[in-house]
Amino acid sequence: MIVSLLDGYIDEPSSLGVPPFISPVVRYLAGAIIDAGHEVRYRTIDSYRMNEGARNDVSTSDLLVILAGVTVPGRYIRGAPMSPAEAVKIASSYEGMTILTGFMTSHFAKDKDLKDKFELLLRGPDPDAQLFDVLKGGFCAPTESRKRTNDEWNRWAIKGISIVKSHPDHPQPLIAEVDVYKGCIRYHSGGCSFCSEILLGPPRFREPEDVAAEVGALAKAGVTNYRLACPCMFSYKAKGVGTKDAFPSPEEVEALLGAVSCETKGMRVLHVDNADPGMIARYPEESRKILKSLVKYCTSGNILSLGMESADPAVIQANNLNSTPEEVLDAIRLINKFGCEKGPTGLPHILPGLNFIAGLKGETSNTYQLNIEFLKKVHSEKLLIRRINIRQVMEIRAEFPGVKKRKDFMRFKEAVRTGIDRPMLEMLIPRGTVLRDLYLETKEGKVSFARQVGTYPILVGIPGNVPERGFFDVAIVDWGQRSVTGLPYPLDVNTASISLLSALPGIGVKRAARLIRARPFKDWEGLAQALDDQKIVDGLKAFVKL
Fold it and tell me: Which of 492, 489, 456, 495 lies closest to 473, judged by CA?
């Protein structure tokens, strides 16, 4: 039997599958299909939208399985997650049996009209295990939503790797997310009120050799970029799990990273995902050791996403959040101390990222003021934060009051974007900084947009055309609120377009036109004569070549 596996993308607390990422869940599903004795045809929703051949591949299969669902929506540059309406349209046009899985099933299960659009909704924590049971049991709905066994986890992770070659971003800039563990370390207390990770139950840790074997198999399939995914890297194989006094195991994290690094032949990127700031702050000695391991084994530009969510004590208590503002600040200080030195990519080795959620229980107008005051304190200490995510709460596990006064929320976002984000970018990436190995994402008008491969990469706007394929370097010339402007590095003054020349510091349109009329230039002296300003010429030496 031929099974079409349509990747509608997921974005969850510790699993990202929107391009250029491919999620581990979709690979597990593929592995389960193959292990059940069937052929799998993998296609992404973007391929389906744009490619008639991909649509034909889906329509001529015997079974359609769709994975979709976003619980922590982000800002997507190129890929767009599948919407419920889109899922219904695709399923309605398919002549065979249809199965939906991922967190989108929660939306469908609540709506009687939507519930019948698919023959089966697989809603368990491990949909791959349910799908395997369906395929082996003659398409009967499983009687219970079981979890995959450790043997199945490792077997399906390997068997499902074959689909990566069908991803449009393979081999570059594809990033494979690799699970380190699933489930919440704070399951005993119920975890954060809004988070879907707690639904996966107590943590299930994978062994270093199992993670390394998966990475090694991905490498053989042509993957060179990896992100190790888990709710908290500092809680990997933590001691005392199941109690409020769980604490980090630096030696286990070192063993994991060391094992993975041995399998990453030709690796370009190795990044991680989340970290609990409370765990870092409460156990600084253990956390120092883990930070040193992360700097040692991972590539630069790495980010530890800190789920702060709020600086308001009332909100923290009402939603069982994982840390106080003081603990978050201590965590930021510690990460800066060990990770802020710049690496080969042009960015620091590892920096914190911050997440804020609006609309939680206990929120008032004062909550936003407390958030701003916290960020101002971080900035006043000249501590670096790589990025600040602000989103409104989604009702995954419970009902929330939501944002009561939209003006307060919008005022908070604007204050962060203008008063924190841009100054932070200016500190992080001073003018003239060279960022290495960017790839083209998209073009809008006369501007090209490119990014490095990695976790939450900085978007770089380039005033002109850049290579459609391959990697290139840029030098930064200006900053926006959440993005920067860069020029191909080094810029060839004798061939560059007027738009690129105009963006050089101190040049502008008139001087750019003067340069074009006077070129070619053989040396810096000739360039100085054309500009008649030695100070400007000296400033260009960090950006151009002759």
Answer: 489
Helices 150-159, 127-136: crossing angle, 10 deg rounding = 80
**311 shares its domain with 400:** yes
CA distance 475 to 494: 17
Q: Which two tokens stand for residue 29?
A: 């599903």
Task: Determine the Cα–Cα distance for residues 317 and 324; give it in Å rounded to an integer.
Answer: 9
Instruction: Compute and round to an integer the Cα radius of gyration of the chain.
Output: 25
**Is it the case that residue 142 has pLDDT exceeding 80?**
no
Q: How many residues does the chain have?
A: 546
**Averaged over 102-128, what is the pLDDT?**
87
CATH of the domain at 131: 3.40.50.2300
- The answer on pLDDT for 141 being more than 80 is no
- What stretches of 110-166 show up as alpha helix (H) in DSSP? 112-115, 127-136, 150-159
Output the domain CATH number for residue 300.
3.80.30.20
- For the entire predicted model, the pTM comes to 0.95
pLDDT bin (cut points 50, 70, 90) of residue 265 is confident
Is 506 part of a structural domain of the chain?
yes
Asked if residue 241 and residue 125 are part of one domain, the reply reads no
Closest alpha carbon to 197 in 187, 206, 207: 187
421 with 470, same domain: the answer is no
Q: Is the Cβ–Cβ distance between 243 and 188 less than 8 Å?
A: yes
What is the residue-wise DSSP string for 293-308? HHHHHSPSSEEEEEEE
Neighbours of 439 (CB within 10 A): 20
Q: For the chain, percent helix, then strand, then coil, each to nearest 5?
A: 40, 25, 35
Which pLDDT does position 143 carry in this prediction?
58
Q: How far is CA 546 from the centre of its chain?
A: 38
Give the Cα separation of 105 and 99 in Å (integer): 10
Give backbone dihedrals phi and psi of 21, rounded to 5 degrees, phi first: -85, 150
CA angle, 505 as apex, 503 and 509 as ends, to 5°?
Answer: 45
